[in-house]
């Protein structure tokens, strides 16, 4: 049983590293194209700033939230930080360092113990995935140029 748990954990880590590697390869291709980066950045700002995310039940629905509340959402802060760094000349390591810094500041550092870290990390991951899924949905529904 102990061996099976270790093998399962190893397989999960290996899958995450493979997924990350594939994502980095894709991002390098995008970052090497000035036109792709420009269109992607424009579409992301449009989705975030122009209210395309106003889908019922959405965590960033602007009609029911104050600007102060939106600034407190660490997921939006992390996304805005990434988008602000997104330029054709950006090295993928800069984007990864941004994510790492934000995770350290908003998830790891505020944790007082292992259980609180698990709770904060789980909550962040759930909300981050929801935000990215919502953005993808909005970009699809609005036929943004970068989504294709």
Automatic annotation (TrEMBL):
Residues 4-148 form the RFX1-4/6/8-like BCD domain. Transmembrane segments: none annotated. It comes from the Eukaryota. Signal peptide: none annotated. GO terms for molecular function: DNA-binding transcription factor activity, RNA polymerase II-specific; RNA polymerase II cis-regulatory region sequence-specific DNA binding. Pfam families: BCD_RFX. It comes from Probosciger aterrimus (Palm cockatoo). This is RFX8 protein. InterPro entries: RFX-like, RFX1-4/6/8-like_BCD.
């Amino acid at each position: 049983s102990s061996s099976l748990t270790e093998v399962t954990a190893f397989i999960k880590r290996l899958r995450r590293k493979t997924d990350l590697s594939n994502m980095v390869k894709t991002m390098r291709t995008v970052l090497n194209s000035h036109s792709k980066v420009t269109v992607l950045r424009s579409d992301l700002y449009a989705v975030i700033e122009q209210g395309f995310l106003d889908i019922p039940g959405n965590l960033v629905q602007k009609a029911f939230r104050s600007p102060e509340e939106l600034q407190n959402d660490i997921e939006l802060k992390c996304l805005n930080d990434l988008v602000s760094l997104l330029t054709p000349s950006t090295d993928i390591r800069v984007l990864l360092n941004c994510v790492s810094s934000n995770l350290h500041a908003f998830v790891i550092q505020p944790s007082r113990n292992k259980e609180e870290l698990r709770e904060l990390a789980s909550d962040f991951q759930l909300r981050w995935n929801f935000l990215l899924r919502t953005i993808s949905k909005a970009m699809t529904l609005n036929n943004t140029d970068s989504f294709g």
